# Entry
Amino acid sequence: MRSFEFVTVDVFTDRRFGGNPLAVFPDAQGLTDAEMQSLAAEFNLSETTFVLPPADAANTARIRIFNRTSEMPFAGHPNVGTGWVLRGRGSALRFEEIAGLVEVNVSGDIVTIDAPQPLSLGPEMPADLLAACVGIAPGEVVVRSHRPVMASVGNSFVVAEVMPEALTRAVPDIARFREAVTSYTALGPRRLPLYLYAQDGARLRARMFSPLSGTVEDAATGSAATPLAALLLSLGSEQERRYDIVQGVEMGRPSLLNASARRAADGIRASVGGGCVPVLKGEVSL
# Structure
């Protein structure tokens, strides 16, 4: 029988049982693809990460990220949490992932990651279609700055601004999500992650729904906060800007994501960081 150690951490928080929980296998050598997927489904968290030796010795590790149903090319809170777990390997880490190389900076309990790709935008999603998926009125989708649009810096989301009251009331309708992917096909037949945000004074407040991939709602989504920051910067003329994003409040798992975006030679780049707190550790036998 083979044994594999794991730890769990709460990410984008400074206290246990806040933020977004993550399971990390610090040494996943010997696990098959199917076993990694089965373990991610068993933990039943939004993501689980598996640490492997890097292909290039100049990098820290190769990181594989699985949600409940499939492998992901990049994700935010898994990189932040894995960076915290591997902080003993140094303050500047480099993770090889499907979407590209992820730079990680560790400073105490705060971990900040650079998204692996510049901002790219895809098709817009009709406001009435998005509204139906989350149980709000089409008029509560704010389109003065941008319409709901697919945005990515390594992992794609439909990003939409909504009225603050609508954000609080939003409830995903899985049947409507299934109907929506038959007409809005940009993200494939089994994936339609909707990242909604609203202005909240000097901060932004956000929620992320992805029921078709097993995450009805996510407590903190770094790979959505980063394209949001990049998209907002693209709408103005500033060279750089920081955004504090609150998420997970409605779930009882308040999270704070410190996102930033900057103009670079190859486009608009984004970063996200936050705190981590250890929760569990154990061993899996297979």
The helical segments are 33-43, 76-85, 127-134, 164-169, 174-180, 222-234. The mean pLDDT is 97.
